[in-house]
Design a protein that fits this description.
about 70 residues
């Protein structure tokens, strides 16, 4: 197997990253963010803190018709 290395400038890399993410659908972007969140929680062993924070974030809304 042959490795290929491409050397680019930092501003070119940022442009490439921006173009890549702009081509993704909103659903794909959200999936990527969720995947990174889950990896962070597992990697830093934050499961307990995550569950506790979810309890505080819960909101219940009731939609009603105005007269």
């Amino acid at each position: 197997m042959r490795s290929i290395v491409r050397i680019i400038k930092k501003d070119e890399e940022e442009k490439f990253n921006l173009e890549y993410w702009l081509k993704r659908t909103p659903e794909e972007r959200l999936e990527a963010v969720q995947l990174l969140r889950e990896q962070y929680i597992r990697y830093f062993n934050k499961q307990v803190l995550y569950r506790e924070s979810r309890k505080r974030l819960r909101r219940i809304y009731k939609v009603t018709q105005q007269a």
